[in-house]
Amino acid sequence: MIDQERIAQLNLGLEPLLQPDVEHIAAQLDRQDSTSAEQVIAALTAFSVAAPSWAVGTGGTRFGRFPIGGEPRTTEEKIDDVATLNALTATNRSISLHVPWDDPDDPEGLREYASSRAIAFDAMNSNTFQDNPSTTDDGKLSYKFGSLAHSDSAVRDVAVDHNKYVIDLGVRLGSEALTVWLADGINHPGQADHRAQFERVAAGLTAIHDHLPDGWQMYTEHKPYEPAFYATVNNDWGSSLLLAQAAGPRASCLVDLGHHLPNANIEQIVSRLAMVGRLGGFHFNDSKYGDDDLTTGSIKPFQLFLIFCELIRAGDGRLPSLAYMIDQSHNIKDPLEDLVQSTEAVSIAYAQALLVDRPALRAAQDANDAAMAQQLLQDAFRTDVRPLVAEARRRAGGAISPLEAYRSVGYRAAMIEERGLVSVATGL
Ligand SMILES: [Mn+2]
Questions:
Q1: Ligand 1 center from residue 73 Cα (angstroms)
Q2: How many Å apart are CA 38 and CA 349, to the nearest integer?
Q3: Measured between alpha carbons, how far is 254 from 222 in angstroms, rounded to an integer?
Q4: Measured in angstroms, how far is the CA atom of residue 214 from the centroid of ligand 1?
Q5: Rounded CA gap, 181 and 169, in Å?
Q6: Measuring CA to CA, which of 44, 121, 174, 356 is 20 to 30 A from 323?
Q7: Interhelix angle 37-46/386-395, nearest 10 degrees
Q8: pLDDT of residue 255 exceeding 60
Protein backbone atom coordinates (compact mmCIF):
# COMPACT_ATOMS: atom_id res chain seq x y z
CA MET A 1 0.00 0.00 0.00
CA ILE A 2 1.10 3.53 -0.70
CA ASP A 3 1.37 5.85 2.24
CA GLN A 4 -1.14 8.69 1.83
CA GLU A 5 1.19 11.00 3.71
CA ARG A 6 3.90 10.35 1.16
CA ILE A 7 1.48 11.29 -1.62
CA ALA A 8 0.49 14.46 0.22
CA GLN A 9 4.15 15.28 0.66
CA LEU A 10 4.85 14.83 -3.05
CA ASN A 11 1.78 16.94 -3.85
CA LEU A 12 3.07 19.81 -1.73
CA GLY A 13 5.95 20.31 -4.11
CA LEU A 14 3.69 20.30 -7.17
CA GLU A 15 0.81 22.42 -5.87
CA PRO A 16 2.46 25.78 -6.60
CA LEU A 17 2.81 24.66 -10.22
CA LEU A 18 -0.72 23.29 -10.48
CA GLN A 19 -2.73 26.12 -8.95
CA PRO A 20 -2.00 28.79 -11.61
CA ASP A 21 -2.98 26.27 -14.30
CA VAL A 22 -6.26 25.50 -12.53
CA GLU A 23 -6.99 29.20 -12.15
CA HIS A 24 -6.21 29.81 -15.80
CA ILE A 25 -8.61 27.18 -17.09
CA ALA A 26 -11.24 28.24 -14.55
CA ALA A 27 -11.07 31.79 -15.89
CA GLN A 28 -11.22 30.49 -19.48
CA LEU A 29 -14.34 28.47 -18.72
CA ASP A 30 -15.97 31.37 -16.89
CA ARG A 31 -15.54 33.55 -19.97
CA GLN A 32 -17.19 30.91 -22.12
CA ASP A 33 -20.20 30.75 -19.83
CA SER A 34 -20.07 26.95 -20.07
CA THR A 35 -19.54 24.24 -17.50
CA SER A 36 -17.43 25.71 -14.69
CA ALA A 37 -14.12 24.32 -13.50
CA GLU A 38 -15.73 23.45 -10.18
CA GLN A 39 -18.49 21.51 -11.93
CA VAL A 40 -15.91 19.53 -13.90
CA ILE A 41 -13.91 18.80 -10.75
CA ALA A 42 -17.05 17.69 -8.91
CA ALA A 43 -18.02 15.36 -11.78
CA LEU A 44 -14.51 13.88 -11.91
CA THR A 45 -14.49 13.38 -8.15
CA ALA A 46 -17.71 11.38 -8.33
CA PHE A 47 -16.45 9.25 -11.23
CA SER A 48 -14.84 5.86 -10.80
CA VAL A 49 -13.63 3.37 -13.37
CA ALA A 50 -13.10 -0.22 -12.23
CA ALA A 51 -9.86 -2.10 -12.67
CA PRO A 52 -10.11 -5.75 -13.64
CA SER A 53 -8.24 -8.29 -11.57
CA TRP A 54 -6.48 -9.59 -14.69
CA ALA A 55 -4.97 -6.23 -15.58
CA VAL A 56 -2.67 -5.98 -12.58
CA GLY A 57 -0.47 -8.80 -13.83
CA THR A 58 1.37 -8.81 -17.12
CA GLY A 59 -0.64 -10.41 -19.89
CA GLY A 60 1.22 -12.11 -22.61
CA THR A 61 0.72 -13.23 -26.13
CA ARG A 62 0.60 -16.66 -27.67
CA PHE A 63 4.30 -16.10 -28.36
CA GLY A 64 5.37 -15.64 -24.81
CA ARG A 65 5.04 -13.82 -21.57
CA PHE A 66 7.56 -11.59 -19.83
CA PRO A 67 6.70 -11.25 -16.15
CA ILE A 68 7.52 -7.85 -14.74
CA GLY A 69 8.07 -9.19 -11.25
CA GLY A 70 6.13 -8.60 -8.08
CA GLU A 71 2.85 -9.56 -9.71
CA PRO A 72 -0.01 -10.47 -7.40
CA ARG A 73 -0.27 -14.15 -6.55
CA THR A 74 -3.71 -14.10 -4.98
CA THR A 75 -6.96 -12.20 -5.30
CA GLU A 76 -6.07 -10.37 -2.09
CA GLU A 77 -2.85 -9.14 -3.68
CA LYS A 78 -4.76 -8.06 -6.79
CA ILE A 79 -6.98 -6.01 -4.47
CA ASP A 80 -3.82 -4.54 -2.90
CA ASP A 81 -2.64 -3.44 -6.33
CA VAL A 82 -5.98 -1.86 -7.20
CA ALA A 83 -6.00 -0.11 -3.81
CA THR A 84 -2.54 1.22 -4.64
CA LEU A 85 -3.79 2.38 -8.03
CA ASN A 86 -6.73 4.09 -6.35
CA ALA A 87 -4.48 5.74 -3.79
CA LEU A 88 -2.72 7.39 -6.72
CA THR A 89 -5.68 8.20 -8.94
CA ALA A 90 -8.63 8.41 -6.50
CA THR A 91 -10.61 7.19 -9.51
CA ASN A 92 -10.45 3.37 -9.34
CA ARG A 93 -12.63 2.40 -6.41
CA SER A 94 -13.61 -1.08 -7.51
CA ILE A 95 -12.20 -4.30 -8.87
CA SER A 96 -13.81 -6.66 -11.35
CA LEU A 97 -13.16 -10.35 -10.72
CA HIS A 98 -12.85 -13.14 -13.23
CA VAL A 99 -14.08 -16.58 -12.21
CA PRO A 100 -12.51 -19.14 -11.93
CA TRP A 101 -9.25 -17.12 -12.05
CA ASP A 102 -10.56 -15.54 -8.88
CA ASP A 103 -12.57 -18.01 -6.84
CA PRO A 104 -12.25 -17.16 -3.14
CA ASP A 105 -12.84 -19.85 -0.53
CA ASP A 106 -14.09 -17.21 1.86
CA PRO A 107 -16.02 -14.55 -0.10
CA GLU A 108 -17.17 -12.71 3.03
CA GLY A 109 -13.58 -12.54 4.24
CA LEU A 110 -12.45 -11.25 0.86
CA ARG A 111 -15.20 -8.64 0.90
CA GLU A 112 -14.02 -7.46 4.28
CA TYR A 113 -10.42 -7.42 3.06
CA ALA A 114 -11.37 -5.27 0.06
CA SER A 115 -13.54 -3.01 2.16
CA SER A 116 -10.65 -2.38 4.55
CA ARG A 117 -8.81 -1.02 1.51
CA ALA A 118 -11.84 0.99 0.32
CA ILE A 119 -12.26 -1.23 -2.73
CA ALA A 120 -15.67 -2.54 -3.86
CA PHE A 121 -16.54 -5.31 -6.30
CA ASP A 122 -17.60 -4.26 -9.76
CA ALA A 123 -19.29 -6.58 -12.28
CA MET A 124 -18.36 -10.26 -12.03
CA ASN A 125 -16.92 -11.91 -15.13
CA SER A 126 -17.76 -15.53 -15.83
CA ASN A 127 -15.17 -17.44 -17.76
CA THR A 128 -16.41 -20.29 -19.93
CA PHE A 129 -13.71 -19.85 -22.55
CA GLN A 130 -11.40 -22.38 -21.00
CA ASP A 131 -12.13 -25.66 -19.25
CA ASN A 132 -12.63 -25.43 -15.54
CA PRO A 133 -11.25 -28.65 -14.04
CA SER A 134 -13.83 -28.65 -11.26
CA THR A 135 -16.82 -28.72 -13.58
CA THR A 136 -15.77 -30.38 -16.81
CA ASP A 137 -15.89 -33.99 -15.60
CA ASP A 138 -12.33 -34.96 -16.62
CA GLY A 139 -12.66 -33.30 -19.99
CA LYS A 140 -15.89 -35.07 -20.95
CA LEU A 141 -17.73 -31.76 -20.67
CA SER A 142 -15.32 -29.46 -22.47
CA TYR A 143 -15.81 -25.95 -23.81
CA LYS A 144 -13.60 -26.75 -26.79
CA PHE A 145 -16.59 -26.46 -29.10
CA GLY A 146 -18.42 -23.82 -27.15
CA SER A 147 -20.18 -23.23 -23.86
CA LEU A 148 -23.69 -21.77 -24.05
CA ALA A 149 -23.71 -22.48 -27.80
CA HIS A 150 -22.47 -26.06 -27.50
CA SER A 151 -24.38 -28.76 -29.36
CA ASP A 152 -24.42 -30.95 -26.24
CA SER A 153 -26.97 -29.81 -23.69
CA ALA A 154 -24.85 -31.26 -20.86
CA VAL A 155 -22.06 -28.79 -21.69
CA ARG A 156 -24.55 -25.93 -21.97
CA ASP A 157 -25.93 -26.84 -18.54
CA VAL A 158 -22.43 -26.72 -17.03
CA ALA A 159 -21.90 -23.29 -18.56
CA VAL A 160 -25.24 -21.98 -17.27
CA ASP A 161 -24.48 -23.40 -13.83
CA HIS A 162 -21.09 -21.69 -13.82
CA ASN A 163 -22.72 -18.34 -14.53
CA LYS A 164 -25.20 -18.92 -11.71
CA TYR A 165 -22.30 -19.81 -9.43
CA VAL A 166 -20.57 -16.54 -10.38
CA ILE A 167 -23.74 -14.58 -9.61
CA ASP A 168 -24.06 -16.28 -6.21
CA LEU A 169 -20.42 -15.53 -5.48
CA GLY A 170 -20.92 -11.93 -6.55
CA VAL A 171 -23.85 -11.55 -4.16
CA ARG A 172 -21.60 -12.56 -1.29
CA LEU A 173 -18.99 -10.02 -2.42
CA GLY A 174 -21.44 -7.17 -2.81
CA SER A 175 -21.25 -7.04 -6.61
CA GLU A 176 -24.42 -6.19 -8.52
CA ALA A 177 -23.73 -7.29 -12.07
CA LEU A 178 -22.55 -10.12 -14.28
CA THR A 179 -20.67 -9.61 -17.53
CA VAL A 180 -20.90 -12.44 -20.04
CA TRP A 181 -18.31 -12.51 -22.74
CA LEU A 182 -18.39 -15.76 -24.69
CA ALA A 183 -15.69 -17.31 -26.81
CA ASP A 184 -18.41 -19.32 -28.55
CA GLY A 185 -18.24 -19.32 -32.30
CA ILE A 186 -17.20 -21.12 -35.43
CA ASN A 187 -13.67 -21.59 -36.73
CA HIS A 188 -14.50 -23.31 -40.00
CA PRO A 189 -17.40 -22.53 -42.35
CA GLY A 190 -20.06 -25.17 -41.96
CA GLN A 191 -18.72 -26.37 -38.62
CA ALA A 192 -21.90 -25.29 -36.82
CA ASP A 193 -25.23 -23.74 -37.63
CA HIS A 194 -25.27 -19.96 -37.08
CA ARG A 195 -28.93 -19.83 -36.10
CA ALA A 196 -28.87 -22.88 -33.82
CA GLN A 197 -25.84 -21.52 -32.00
CA PHE A 198 -27.46 -18.13 -31.53
CA GLU A 199 -30.72 -19.64 -30.25
CA ARG A 200 -28.86 -21.83 -27.77
CA VAL A 201 -26.91 -18.84 -26.45
CA ALA A 202 -30.12 -16.81 -26.14
CA ALA A 203 -31.72 -19.65 -24.17
CA GLY A 204 -28.69 -19.93 -21.90
CA LEU A 205 -28.59 -16.19 -21.24
CA THR A 206 -32.30 -16.27 -20.42
CA ALA A 207 -31.70 -18.99 -17.83
CA ILE A 208 -28.85 -16.94 -16.36
CA HIS A 209 -30.99 -13.79 -16.36
CA ASP A 210 -33.70 -15.67 -14.45
CA HIS A 211 -31.14 -16.31 -11.72
CA LEU A 212 -30.31 -12.61 -11.21
CA PRO A 213 -31.16 -11.40 -7.71
CA ASP A 214 -33.05 -8.15 -7.17
CA GLY A 215 -30.98 -5.13 -8.07
CA TRP A 216 -28.67 -7.06 -10.37
CA GLN A 217 -27.86 -6.39 -14.01
CA MET A 218 -26.22 -8.52 -16.64
CA TYR A 219 -24.21 -7.43 -19.63
CA THR A 220 -23.67 -9.10 -22.97
CA GLU A 221 -20.27 -8.26 -24.46
CA HIS A 222 -19.78 -8.71 -28.17
CA LYS A 223 -16.59 -9.33 -30.14
CA PRO A 224 -16.28 -9.92 -33.88
CA TYR A 225 -13.51 -12.51 -33.89
CA GLU A 226 -11.06 -14.35 -31.68
CA PRO A 227 -10.75 -16.97 -30.39
CA ALA A 228 -13.21 -18.13 -33.05
CA PHE A 229 -11.84 -16.78 -36.30
CA TYR A 230 -14.64 -17.42 -38.78
CA ALA A 231 -17.66 -16.28 -36.75
CA THR A 232 -18.44 -15.55 -33.15
CA VAL A 233 -21.98 -15.96 -31.85
CA ASN A 234 -22.13 -12.51 -30.24
CA ASN A 235 -20.23 -10.78 -33.01
CA ASP A 236 -21.48 -7.22 -33.03
CA TRP A 237 -23.74 -4.71 -31.27
CA GLY A 238 -26.79 -5.89 -33.19
CA SER A 239 -26.34 -9.47 -32.04
CA SER A 240 -25.54 -8.24 -28.56
CA LEU A 241 -28.77 -6.24 -28.49
CA LEU A 242 -30.80 -9.21 -29.73
CA LEU A 243 -29.26 -11.40 -27.03
CA ALA A 244 -29.88 -8.83 -24.30
CA GLN A 245 -33.47 -8.41 -25.43
CA ALA A 246 -33.95 -12.17 -25.49
CA ALA A 247 -32.37 -12.64 -22.06
CA GLY A 248 -34.66 -10.23 -20.23
CA PRO A 249 -35.26 -6.67 -19.09
CA ARG A 250 -32.16 -6.47 -16.87
CA ALA A 251 -29.78 -7.48 -19.63
CA SER A 252 -27.98 -4.78 -21.57
CA CYS A 253 -25.00 -4.46 -23.85
CA LEU A 254 -21.42 -3.82 -22.85
CA VAL A 255 -19.17 -2.06 -25.31
CA ASP A 256 -15.51 -3.06 -25.27
CA LEU A 257 -13.62 -0.51 -27.36
CA GLY A 258 -11.35 -3.19 -28.83
CA HIS A 259 -14.20 -5.49 -29.87
CA HIS A 260 -15.11 -3.89 -33.17
CA LEU A 261 -14.11 -4.34 -36.76
CA PRO A 262 -11.70 -1.66 -38.01
CA ASN A 263 -13.22 1.80 -38.42
CA ALA A 264 -16.48 0.91 -36.70
CA ASN A 265 -18.20 4.07 -35.50
CA ILE A 266 -18.28 3.21 -31.81
CA GLU A 267 -19.83 6.49 -30.69
CA GLN A 268 -22.76 5.82 -33.00
CA ILE A 269 -23.15 2.34 -31.50
CA VAL A 270 -23.22 3.98 -28.08
CA SER A 271 -25.97 6.31 -29.26
CA ARG A 272 -28.07 3.46 -30.66
CA LEU A 273 -27.79 1.27 -27.57
CA ALA A 274 -28.52 4.18 -25.25
CA MET A 275 -31.53 5.15 -27.37
CA VAL A 276 -33.17 1.77 -26.79
CA GLY A 277 -32.20 1.67 -23.12
CA ARG A 278 -29.80 -1.25 -23.51
CA LEU A 279 -26.41 0.36 -22.95
CA GLY A 280 -24.98 -1.30 -19.86
CA GLY A 281 -21.30 -0.65 -19.65
CA PHE A 282 -17.87 -0.10 -21.09
CA HIS A 283 -14.56 -1.80 -21.30
CA PHE A 284 -11.99 0.87 -22.03
CA ASN A 285 -8.84 0.19 -24.01
CA ASP A 286 -7.49 1.30 -27.35
CA SER A 287 -6.52 -0.42 -30.54
CA LYS A 288 -4.81 0.06 -33.83
CA TYR A 289 -5.80 -3.20 -35.51
CA GLY A 290 -8.15 -5.28 -33.38
CA ASP A 291 -8.46 -6.35 -29.80
CA ASP A 292 -5.03 -4.92 -29.07
CA ASP A 293 -5.58 -3.98 -25.43
CA LEU A 294 -3.53 -0.84 -25.89
CA THR A 295 -3.56 1.96 -23.36
CA THR A 296 -6.89 3.77 -23.37
CA GLY A 297 -6.69 6.97 -25.37
CA SER A 298 -3.21 6.25 -26.68
CA ILE A 299 -4.28 5.80 -30.31
CA LYS A 300 -7.69 7.40 -30.76
CA PRO A 301 -8.27 10.01 -28.07
CA PHE A 302 -10.78 11.87 -30.26
CA GLN A 303 -12.90 8.73 -30.53
CA LEU A 304 -12.82 8.38 -26.76
CA PHE A 305 -13.94 12.00 -26.44
CA LEU A 306 -16.80 11.45 -28.91
CA ILE A 307 -17.89 8.38 -26.97
CA PHE A 308 -18.09 10.46 -23.80
CA CYS A 309 -20.02 13.11 -25.72
CA GLU A 310 -22.60 10.44 -26.61
CA LEU A 311 -22.69 9.20 -23.04
CA ILE A 312 -23.37 12.71 -21.75
CA ARG A 313 -25.98 13.15 -24.46
CA ALA A 314 -27.58 9.88 -23.30
CA GLY A 315 -27.52 11.11 -19.69
CA ASP A 316 -28.98 14.48 -20.69
CA GLY A 317 -25.92 16.44 -19.59
CA ARG A 318 -24.61 13.96 -17.03
CA LEU A 319 -22.69 10.75 -17.30
CA PRO A 320 -25.15 7.85 -17.05
CA SER A 321 -24.59 5.39 -14.26
CA LEU A 322 -23.15 2.46 -16.20
CA ALA A 323 -20.48 -0.15 -15.53
CA TYR A 324 -17.22 1.56 -16.47
CA MET A 325 -14.12 -0.58 -16.48
CA ILE A 326 -10.66 -0.63 -18.01
CA ASP A 327 -10.10 -3.89 -19.87
CA GLN A 328 -6.47 -4.18 -20.81
CA SER A 329 -3.74 -6.71 -20.50
CA HIS A 330 -0.26 -5.33 -20.59
CA ASN A 331 2.72 -7.13 -22.05
CA ILE A 332 5.49 -4.57 -21.90
CA LYS A 333 4.67 -1.86 -19.38
CA ASP A 334 4.34 -2.11 -15.65
CA PRO A 335 0.60 -2.91 -15.45
CA LEU A 336 -0.03 -0.36 -12.72
CA GLU A 337 1.69 2.40 -14.66
CA ASP A 338 -0.46 1.58 -17.64
CA LEU A 339 -3.63 1.62 -15.53
CA VAL A 340 -2.62 5.04 -14.21
CA GLN A 341 -2.28 6.29 -17.78
CA SER A 342 -5.54 4.71 -18.93
CA THR A 343 -7.44 6.15 -16.00
CA GLU A 344 -6.02 9.57 -16.77
CA ALA A 345 -7.10 9.23 -20.42
CA VAL A 346 -10.65 8.29 -19.43
CA SER A 347 -10.87 11.22 -17.01
CA ILE A 348 -9.54 13.64 -19.62
CA ALA A 349 -12.06 12.49 -22.24
CA TYR A 350 -14.87 12.77 -19.71
CA ALA A 351 -13.82 16.28 -18.67
CA GLN A 352 -13.48 17.42 -22.28
CA ALA A 353 -16.92 16.09 -23.12
CA LEU A 354 -18.37 18.04 -20.19
CA LEU A 355 -17.01 21.22 -21.79
CA VAL A 356 -19.00 20.85 -25.01
CA ASP A 357 -21.48 23.69 -25.27
CA ARG A 358 -24.44 21.38 -25.88
CA PRO A 359 -27.15 24.02 -26.47
CA ALA A 360 -24.90 25.73 -29.01
CA LEU A 361 -24.12 22.40 -30.64
CA ARG A 362 -27.81 21.58 -30.93
CA ALA A 363 -28.47 25.00 -32.45
CA ALA A 364 -25.66 24.45 -34.96
CA GLN A 365 -27.08 21.05 -35.82
CA ASP A 366 -30.58 22.47 -36.26
CA ALA A 367 -29.16 25.17 -38.52
CA ASN A 368 -27.12 22.64 -40.50
CA ASP A 369 -24.03 24.63 -39.59
CA ALA A 370 -21.44 21.89 -39.92
CA ALA A 371 -18.46 24.21 -39.49
CA MET A 372 -19.76 25.63 -36.21
CA ALA A 373 -20.69 22.17 -34.94
CA GLN A 374 -17.16 20.99 -35.61
CA GLN A 375 -15.66 24.04 -33.96
CA LEU A 376 -17.73 23.51 -30.82
CA LEU A 377 -16.46 19.94 -30.53
CA GLN A 378 -12.88 20.97 -31.25
CA ASP A 379 -13.03 23.80 -28.71
CA ALA A 380 -13.80 21.24 -26.03
CA PHE A 381 -11.46 18.54 -27.30
CA ARG A 382 -8.50 20.88 -27.61
CA THR A 383 -8.92 22.32 -24.12
CA ASP A 384 -6.12 21.15 -21.88
CA VAL A 385 -8.17 19.82 -18.98
CA ARG A 386 -5.25 18.03 -17.32
CA PRO A 387 -4.98 20.60 -14.51
CA LEU A 388 -8.64 19.95 -13.61
CA VAL A 389 -8.08 16.20 -13.63
CA ALA A 390 -5.02 16.62 -11.40
CA GLU A 391 -6.84 19.01 -9.09
CA ALA A 392 -9.76 16.56 -8.72
CA ARG A 393 -7.25 13.86 -7.82
CA ARG A 394 -5.46 16.10 -5.35
CA ARG A 395 -8.63 17.08 -3.54
CA ALA A 396 -9.66 13.43 -3.25
CA GLY A 397 -6.31 12.52 -1.70
CA GLY A 398 -4.72 11.19 -4.87
CA ALA A 399 -1.47 12.23 -6.50
CA ILE A 400 -1.14 15.34 -8.63
CA SER A 401 1.30 13.37 -10.73
CA PRO A 402 0.40 9.69 -10.17
CA LEU A 403 3.02 8.12 -12.42
CA GLU A 404 5.85 10.05 -10.78
CA ALA A 405 4.42 9.31 -7.35
CA TYR A 406 4.20 5.60 -8.16
CA ARG A 407 7.83 5.52 -9.23
CA SER A 408 8.95 7.65 -6.36
CA VAL A 409 7.54 5.33 -3.69
CA GLY A 410 9.20 2.27 -5.24
CA TYR A 411 6.09 0.11 -5.11
CA ARG A 412 7.19 -2.36 -7.79
CA ALA A 413 10.55 -2.97 -6.18
CA ALA A 414 8.86 -3.56 -2.84
CA MET A 415 6.46 -6.04 -4.45
CA ILE A 416 9.28 -7.91 -6.16
CA GLU A 417 10.86 -8.21 -2.75
CA GLU A 418 7.63 -9.47 -1.22
CA ARG A 419 6.05 -11.54 -3.99
CA GLY A 420 9.08 -12.63 -5.94
CA LEU A 421 10.35 -12.07 -9.45
CA VAL A 422 8.15 -14.65 -11.14
CA SER A 423 4.53 -14.80 -10.06
CA VAL A 424 1.41 -15.32 -12.13
CA ALA A 425 -1.85 -13.52 -11.58
CA THR A 426 -4.17 -14.93 -14.22
CA GLY A 427 -5.24 -18.40 -15.16
CA LEU A 428 -3.88 -18.25 -18.68
MN1 LIG B 1 -13.83 -6.80 -22.43
A1: 22
A2: 17
A3: 7
A4: 25
A5: 18
A6: 356
A7: 60
A8: yes
